[in-house]
Amino acid sequence: MKHEIITLQDVQIIGMSKNIEFCHPEECTKFWGEYVERIIKPVFMEGKTPDEFQQAAINNGVGAFGLCTCDIPNHNCATCAEVNFGGACKKTFTYVIGGIYKGGNVPEGMALFPIHSGKWLKVHFEGGMKAFHQQYQMFHKEWLPAHPEYKWADNSVSMEWYQGTDINSPDYQCGVMMPLED
User: Fold this and answer.
1) What are phi and psi of 42, to 5 degrees?
2) Which end of the chain has fewer surrounding CB within 10 Å, N or C?
3) What is the pLDDT of residues 54-97, one digit of tens each?
């Protein structure tokens, strides 16, 4: 998998969030549908004037990231996923559809989420959104264990990244980012 090391310092993500049970990760996909209905469809497809919420989303690039976080102490998203996803667990994580906060109003229904300052591993997936879930699993189950030089920072989040407009194109750019131990 193509990958690079990037640095993020003092970054906050602004976005809309939803608590999702670990045993129902498919709710993330449904939440993206809510994002399209709330922001993309009215403004970009129907040409309506953006309201305060929609304008904040546009100004800050909300939709560029899917952020996963939870309040379980002394863990990271890799170990958390192994323990909690797919089981009968009723614990929840917070999923955020967001963008990098550039300043300005944080409207009702959005919040700010600080993220780990330092080095991040940014992994590029091939094949667009159709291949995203398969490559996401491959990253966690095969690629990351085969690359022990990359250690996930504890008490941190995981971010999916998205770039482009045609999610059905095999050239659509997306992947995952993980904060690295210092």
Assistant:
1) -65, -40
2) C
3) 999 999 999 999 998 876 666 666 666 566 555 556 778 899 99
- H-helix or E-strand containing 20? strand 12-21
What is the distance of C-alpha 10 from the center of its chain?
A: 17
DSSP 50: P
CA angle 65, 69, 74 (to 5 degrees): 140
Rounded-to-integer distance, Cα 29 and Cα 101, Å: 23
- Nearest residue to 151 (alpha-carbon basis) of 116, 123, 180: 180
Q: Rounded to two decimals, what is the model's pTM?
A: 0.90
- Comparing CA positions, the residue from 180, 151, 176, 154 lying closest to residue 65 is 176
Backbone angles phi, psi at 95, to 5 degrees: -110, 130
161-177 pLDDT tens trace = 999 888 888 889 999 99
- pLDDT of 123 higher than 80: yes
- Greatest alpha-carbon span in the chain: 49
111-114/65-69 β-pairing: unpaired
Which two tokens mark 78? 């890799």
CA angle in degrees (0–180, nearest 5) for 102-182-11: 5
